[in-house]
Amino acid sequence: METIFDSLAGLGSFAMYFGLSIVFLFVFKVVYSFVTPHDEWKLVKEEQNTAAAIGFGGAIIGFAIALGSAASNSVAVVDFAIWSVVAIIAQSIAFALLRFTFMPKIAERISNNEVSAGTMLACISVAVGLLNAACMTY
Question: Which of 138, 133, 134, 108 is nearest to 121 (CA)?
């Protein structure tokens, strides 16, 4: 029985980090919507745009990977919050780099439901999330 209580001793910290993670996922969705010139939610929900769903899904996964690393490596909740904001910035920069360098018409292509553009956005987003997560292991 003592083992169970020992295991559950971290439940409060888990709840705090998990709750904050959900909040940061929502914050990421809002920030990312401002960074991109197209409305992902409208494209996905109203127009059933596969390219937008793939691209936005990849961005969320990439951010969640970095967020998970921030939670794993943080020494306090404030540290976690700081690195979560860094992850939001990194994912936003990833979209900007893709948009202004490699694929300048990516927003238009995603709006036109070009799955290849959504797939590239997802791949870049996940790659940046993985790199971001690896760099947070201090």
Answer: 108
d(CA 92, CA 28): 9
**Residues whose CB is less than 8 angstroms from the CB of residue 87 and which lie 6 or more positions away in sequence, other chains included:** 24, 28, 63, 66, 67, 70, 129, 132, 136
The tokens for 61 are: 């996964």
State the Cα–Cα distance between residues 4 and 117, nearest whole angstrom: 49
State pLDDT tens for residues 102-133: 899 999 999 999 999 999 999 999 999 999 99
Q: Per-residue pLDDT tens for 62-108?
A: 999 999 999 999 999 999 999 999 999 999 998 898 889 989 999 99
Q: Which burial class, exposed, middle or buried, applies to 60 when counting CB atoms under 10 A from its CB (0-12, 13-18, 19+)?
A: buried
Helix (H) or strand (E) holding 12: helix 11-35
CA distance readout (Å), 100 to 4, 58, 96, 104, 126: 53, 19, 6, 5, 18
